[in-house]
Amino acid sequence: MELNNYRMELGAKLVNLRKELGLTQEVVAEKLGVTTQAVSKWEKGESSPDIPLLKGIAELYGISLDTLLNVPFYAKIDVIEDRIEEMMNCMPSFNNRSTMMNDIGEEIWRLWKTVFMQEAAVNGQPDERQKKGRRVLSNFGVRMWDDNGLAAYIRSHMYDKFENLQPEYVEVIKTLLHEEYFKIITLFRPEQKLTRDDVCQSTGYDHEKVTSILFDLVSRELLVTQDNRFYLSAHKGIAISLLLSAVYALQFGPYSTSEYVMDE
User: Fold this and answer.
1) β-sheet bridge partners, residue 196
2) Which helix (H) or strand (E) holds 157?
3) Model's pTM, two decimal places?
4) Cβ density class 229-263: b for 16+ within 10 Å, e for less
5) Can you say how many angstroms the Cα of residue 243 is from the centroid of all Cα atoms in its chain?
């Protein structure tokens, strides 16, 4: 399904939702703070609503955001992914927080779950192994989903790359698994900044040890420091999250998928 077709489908859905409530385009426009022409273009499939308006539209029509943006099972996965990426790109950075981060973040997670489960389907029907929440190993790769917040999808061709991993980066992982390093990296959350005193207080380590480890992680580009605060690197720092997720995956299971939702 191309983007234009997706817009047409979304437009048709908006028309039906509006008519079901007996609303005019003028009333919808007034409630959303936009022009009647904008509402008309959405419904004709000529354009899509701006991301910040999506939650308001869903609330106006009494449906969830993932239901509003959902497309039939036969739709191409990349169209859904493009829509999710568009939403994510419009999310405010941690330097400019807003309630939209929390409001839309959970909806994005649900949309990704839909994509994940659709790709795990067999012949248009849910893969029963996936529906029951067990890890799926196949020729395509590895899939697992945990409703608590872990999702993993590794395609088979990635395994060919594992044979050529550079030793220097393997050593980085070994370092992160060292007890003292590991205790420190578990303190960091995405977009959270910690001072050395924060780390000392949480770990019980002395100032000298904490300083040494923090700046070692900075030198490896896993952490970034600014104004005497430390936070995860947006690039290599993701390795820390992957590593911690791997430990979680070993510790817990089987993985739970509470529901599989498919359009009629």
Assistant:
1) none
2) none
3) 0.62
4) ebbbbeebbebbeebeeeeeeeeeeebebeebeee
5) 17
pLDDT of 15 strictly over 90: yes
Residue-range domains of the chain with CATH: 1-112 (1.10.260.40), 120-158 (no CATH), 167-249 (1.10.10.10)
Coil/strand/helix, residue 16:
helix
**Nearest-CA neighbor of 260 among 56, 139, 118, 140?**
118
Q: Which two tokens stand for residue 80?
A: 């859904």
Q: Within 10 Å of residue 128's Cβ, how many Cβ atoms?
A: 10
Per-residue confidence (pLDDT) for residue 97, from 0 to 100: 45
**Other beta carbons within 10 Å of 18:** 20
How many whole angstroms from its chain centre is CA 60?
A: 25
